[in-house]
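Example complex used in Figure S2.
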Amino acid sequence: MSSTEENESIANVDACFSIKFLGTGNAPGVPVRGCSCDVCIKAKVNKDLRRESCCAVIEFAEHRILLDAGVFDLKYRFSENSLSAILLTHFHPDHVQGLFPFRWGGNDRIDTYAPNDKEGCGDLYKNPGVLNFLTLTAFAHFYIGEVLITPVPLAHSKITLGFCFEHLNVKIAYLTDTVGLPKKTEAFLRYWEPDVMVIDCAFPPQKTRPRNHNDINMVLTTYEEFKPKKMLLTHIGHQLDLWLNAHEQELPDGISVVRDNETYIF
Amino acid sequence: MSSTEENESIANVDACFSIKFLGTGNAPGVPVRGCSCDVCIKAKVNKDLRRESCCAVIEFAEHRILLDAGVFDLKYRFSENSLSAILLTHFHPDHVQGLFPFRWGGNDRIDTYAPNDKEGCGDLYKNPGVLNFLTLTAFAHFYIGEVLITPVPLAHSKITLGFCFEHLNVKIAYLTDTVGLPKKTEAFLRYWEPDVMVIDCAFPPQKTRPRNHNDINMVLTTYEEFKPKKMLLTHIGHQLDLWLNAHEQELPDGISVVRDNETYIF
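Predicted assembly (532 residues):
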């Protein structure tokens, strides 16, 4: 489990936009229970090699926004009034499970933007606690502080939105969970021209099109299509980590595989 | 977060029945996010004072049974083929949240006994992974190894069952979450005469009957009614911990307040 510094400040410079990845793993995380592959064996012993489920925090000016909630120690990281908002890509448990204990306690009320998914997850809607759920519409942009945010549909097994952030001429697209991209999202991104793409890549190269999540082949195709200055891979599974041990240097220079607790500043 | 020794053995003596409490807190746990009470301030610093959500493991002969799943590190504690079964009292997230990452990985198939709650929690039914869900009927007893288990209805805001374990003439009733007891469960327990009662006690003494969980007053009434040799309090909230700091010595000798990672052997 990652560190528990409360309300950690990621970047002290106002004129920047930072993203810290609290969790970069898929639903089972790394290590996978019961797995004796080289990656999982090492991750059991070395916490630095572990991957919690997806979660990130972005910071700009005085704002701090949580992006999904796959990690379990949120109450130790973000005390009362320390978050401007929460953005949820979708309601699969590995993206919201950290909210179950987090929603209780505190007198703040946190705007929690989410897709229009009537099912939600567990009793989050019924007993929201400090979470003030707000429903997003695809392509209907909104602002948090001075950051323009456009939600874009993704291709997944549950209604899912990616988020396109624009701040001080930097454009960052956060695109997980997805397998490929819906045509209208592709068209928007072609027009919008992201500088940075954070994208779901759960699997090593597959022989056939994977289900629900990208593999390396699909991510490389997307990279060639959009040519962002930087592409960051997240939602990593242990089999991809195994493949990367032998092949990471074959990836284009513009592509990086993120690790838990890494911060990128733009 | 509690220790992560894999497949830890609790008791090496075959002829005993042990229960280890992995989590003894209510849904927010201790500390509560954003709380500056004396208990929460101390628990932020001292991990021994923390309470994760409800979870216990019982061991007898060669069997190890998980009882609810409120803690998040189950995959580090219980590797492949290390659990005989899982018993779920109900599907509130604080009792099943640890199953979300745990269900993926491993080639075992774990019998997971649960109340007949069609809703479940999140996508646990849809994507059970290694969990083999089996539906329980109130008062319809069953065996795991040589232990006789009788599920009994509890009084809670979601369909909930307690579990009465009988092994080598020791009778242990695990009764959380509940506020009071349904009449038929009371009658069964009066007939069955438990030696040990593990019972939900979330609150300090309240002026009016509490909702969904017992307070100290109700637990004392139950203790007087059944006179078990031992009563163990679990599902503790931070306000009860605060009250206990001044009043724990006033409780009858037969009542103990459990802490995370404590083991009792019978």
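The two ends of chain A are 27 Å apart (CA to CA). Chain A has one domain: 13-265.
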